[in-house]
Amino acid sequence: MRRLLVTAAIAAALFAAAGCSGERDGAAAPDPSARPSGGTPSSGAASPGATPGGAAGSPAVDTSPAGGNGKEVCEAATKASTSSVQTFVSELGKSLQAAGTGDTAGAQGAQRKAEAALQTWGTAMREQSARATDERLKGVLAEIATEVGTMKATVESVDENKLQQLQQRLDQLCGT
User: Fold this and answer.
1) Is 145 contained in some domain?
2) Is residue 156 part of a domain?
3) I want to staple 110 with a disulfide (CB 3.0 to 4.6 A). Which of 43, 94, 149, 175 is the partner?
4) What predicted TM-score, i.e. pTM, was given to this entire model?
5) pLDDT tens across 5-41, in order?
6) How far is CA 17 from the centre of its chain?
């Protein structure tokens, strides 16, 4: 799934660099500094399985792969994301291309398909979060679902930094 999120972010950056978008709307993306440090869920509670007894003044962070049904949940999340991200990137590109040629109907149709892909992606991440027995994995998948829920079928709505941060945490939990 890492490559897929990076692909979405790169595609957004390339479209922006090509002049296909205007200025970023800072209100469309959550503040990355609002994310909890250390990659722990936002509840503030220690993650189950966290390594006890970290260095004085610093919380212990469990960097091990997700336990419980983590392998199955990671595989299902990756599979569900693959189709959604590919569709989103493809349809976003089609929408931008159609808009560039003045094909309003084509742009709107592709935009609707891109939005549907985002909805499917977010739903899949919420479902996998609900299935996860590892609280850390549950939290990251829920955060991905929330982030995807803020996205629209526009380049400006893709927060590459946030997606990359979430992906790094998910990669760590999924052992990839």
Assistant:
1) yes
2) yes
3) 94
4) 0.68
5) 555 555 544 344 333 433 333 333 333 333 333 333 3
6) 21
